[in-house]
Amino acid sequence: MERKATAGKRNKNSKKLSGLFFDKLIQYALEPVMVTDSKGELVYANKEFVSFYALSPDEAHGKKWDDIMIPRENRDDAGNVFKCVKNRRSLCFFDTPAPGWNRTCKHISWVAIPFKKESTPFYLFVGGEKPLNSKPLMEVRDAVGDAEANTHRDLVDMLVEASWNSEPETAKHSARVMELSVALARKIGMSKKRVERLKIASLLHDLGKLGVDEKILFKKGRLDKTEFEEIRKHPEWGAEAAGHLYFLRDIIPIMADHHENYDGSGYPRGKKGSRIPLEARVLSVADIYEALTADRPYRKGFSSEEAIKIMEDEKGRKLDPKITEVFFKMIKKKNGKWGWKKI
Fold this sequence. Notes:
Strands 2-1-5-4-3-6 form a six-stranded antiparallel beta sheet. A hairpin with a 2-residue loop joins strand 4 and strand 5. The chain is an alpha+beta fold. The chain contains 15 helices and six strands.
């Protein structure tokens, strides 16, 4: 059945959702994602959402969420569902029937996530196609225990996958940094909870680079002062993007501080020594090693031996000396050579 949709007016709150998180990240997510205001009007819809519901972006904006997502015969309970979503302070689940014009699944499972932008409340909905089960449709369910933890991981995976689609080279670098960071964190005896937090922060630490002009990001020559200043903004841009999801709040300081230097000469705030989170100090060591040994548009990667010599000179300046020494021991192979298997 072909569905005809009338063009909706663009909600004034749509402008508040422009920026890195939505324009460069969620747009590339492979799941349907939409955002409503407190009235239930759509203020954002990504490519997958408008494609799934056979709409154009202009047709989606300004329409009530249930007018798009719920077949007319199933809309009686939609108002109560949205009230329940608004009353939750954390994520929750609900399912909707699949629209009649798209029969690829029996129903759609949604995760609803509250957040604020410029003091305005919004509700982000991430959908997934699943076969019909015994759970009642149009009933809000709290995310608790394993279900909540698994959903957090799924949402992080969505962000990582979207970053791969948006900027593959930056995402590959982050994946390698994550391997090194996690191994180093375990070597220094970091708790399981902190290791997991570091793992997520490592995967997302360069998220802010998606907001940097590609001509600057992949420039082959030396950056000028203006270009370098834009690059320096990426830790804060990434931390701001992660702030849209309340359950990532613990990784924000790690993302924001991963370019702070041990002697206080780093950016963005010039933090020094133990004022820099331990996770960020670990991440910095792994980040620098991976950056040195990887090929870049402007140079070929250094060997492990060369990278270690460079990092040796940075102990106590850029790098925490104790953590760096543990890292050196970690990557030294039994045959006395330096190295780390890249993915």
